[in-house]
User: Which sequence fits this backbone?
């Protein structure tokens, strides 16, 4: 019989206070002012966000900066995608929109879903950096993110997909961001099942699948008779 031994490390098991507090303080800002970070500021944040875990260092992502009239063109594209007569005013809710694009690379090692995860990771880290620097940020999406009109407006390639936009602007003086409770970590962190439990779960899953197959076969036979 083997025993489980809990090991500890001399290295601190928690993030540095600055990073931990920054993550805990992050909120989504649905309303922002007309102020926005400059291009140089944005490039500094993007350079840091690009350090996310990236299998084979494929860099399967890119960002598109939308300011001024770019947002109006996006509003027109959204309207075309939805069949509306008037341009959408949604892109005008912030002075800066950062389109997050998954730019897939050919790879035998890194599947498509993993590359999309990298692009999402860059967006999340970038939103955290912007928030920590004092900017209001919210990640917005919509069914039209995958429409032809919106893709064309962004100049997307055949191996690219739009994952949404980070809406960025100044945090309104005195305004409070939407609250978000800290999760109960114990609910989301678990240990793998024991061998015996895993075997029971496997048998239960197999039995369920077999019942579903028999039900489907029975339904097919019934249709043939009618």
Assistant:
């Amino acid at each position: 019989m083997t025993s489980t031994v809990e090991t500890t490390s001399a290295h601190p098991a928690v993030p540095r206070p600055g990073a931990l507090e920054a993550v805990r303080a992050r909120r989504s800002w649905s309303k922002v002012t007309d102020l926005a970070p400059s291009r140089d500021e944005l490039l500094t944040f993007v350079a840091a966000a690009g350090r996310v875990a990236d299998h084979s260092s494929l860099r399967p992502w890119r960002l598109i900066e939308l300011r001024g009239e770019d947002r109006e063109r996006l509003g027109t594209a959204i309207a075309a995608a939805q069949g509306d007569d008037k341009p959408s005013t949604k892109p005008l809710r912030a002075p800066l929109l950062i389109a997050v694009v998954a730019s897939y690379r050919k790879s035998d090692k890194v599947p498509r879903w993993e590359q999309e995860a990298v692009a999402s990771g860059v967006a999340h880290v970038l939103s955290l950096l912007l928030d920590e620097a004092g900017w209001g940020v919210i990640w917005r999406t919509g069914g039209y993110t995958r429409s032809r009109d919106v893709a064309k407006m962004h100049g997307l390639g055949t191996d690219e997909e739009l994952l949404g936009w980070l809406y960025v602007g100044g945090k309104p003086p005195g305004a409070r961001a939407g609250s978000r409770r800290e999760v109960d970590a114990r609910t989301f962190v678990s240990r793998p099942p024991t061998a015996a439990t895993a075997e029971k779960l496997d048998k239960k899953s197999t039995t369920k699948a077999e019942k579903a197959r028999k039900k489907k076969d029975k339904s097919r036979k019934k249709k043939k008779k009618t």
Observations:
- The helical segments are 17-25, 39-49, 69-82, 112-132, 148-154, 185-188, 195-225.
- The radius of gyration is 24 Å.
- Strands lie at 61-67, 96-103, 135-140, 160-170.
